[in-house]
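Reminder: ligand-aware prediction takes two inputs, not one.
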Amino acid sequence: MKRNLSPSFEGVTTQIQPTKRKRKPVPVNLAALAPTGDKSTHSITQGSNKFEQVSRDFLIGSGKNWRLFTEEELPGAEVFYLPDFIDVATAMTWRAELDKLDTWHRPTLKVYGREVIQSRLTAVYATTPELTMKYSGQVVKMHYPYPNLVSEIQRLLEKTLGFGLEDMAEGEGNNLTGFNHVMLNKYDDGSVYIGQHSDSRENKVIASLSLGAPRTFIMTPRKGSPGEKLKWTLDNGSLMIMQGDTQLNWKHKIPKEPKVKEGRISLTFRQLVYENHRPAG
Ligand SMILES: O=C(O)CCC(=O)C(=O)O
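Here is what comes back for the chain with 2-oxoglutaric acid:
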């Protein structure tokens, strides 16, 4: 199913930096501050308007151990979870290699006139140099090209999710859909978390790969949406998909877990769609 939706704000957890007067840094959940639907906070300035949703039937037919959340469990959401996308040894090897990337950084954002530093380390890549994104009014530095390992992981993901099959059936000969952007998040231990938020709805599909310490993932219905809070563990080597109206109806977070002493890296592969952009021809 193909649809175009307008963007909203992607929440992050941050610390306010001292501005004119010396002020003690205060942890702030930007998701709680920012109004949903504020286009100035997160907007795509370039990109493709073509995207593809993961087919539930394809996942059922794959014979893999997918948990496909039902409409009763998560009304108005399409969420799929595969606990053993890769084995633990591979997950640990990938985490160690990605830990060494030289692109990890904490972006400084401007929120309601204040300079704010994001607490999580992130590394951001795009598949094409012309894909750009604004976040909280600032252009996000997207690196290009992907590191080899990240490209390999994306290829494996797209195969696992059945992306590109439609293009091939149409004889286009290449994969015009698939993911065009990945954001890596680093959680050094259980003190690092991500506050409750919904992602921008320009993210048509988000596929989140977990490497390292298992962490709790909590989904809560947005105001006015039906459903009950649901939580489960994102295991080492697991894959989680969110698509459809999930961001419209639900918020999600990874809470602080003081007992977790090990680190985790997540790779959130995304299909960013710029809805006003029409490719030439
Ligand atoms: O680290 C994760 O698995 C979740 C990250 C997340 O919530 C996001 O990128 O929106």
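Helices lie at 30-33, 56-61, 88-99, 148-161, 165-169, 246-249. The radius of gyration is 18 Å. We will return to this case in the review session.
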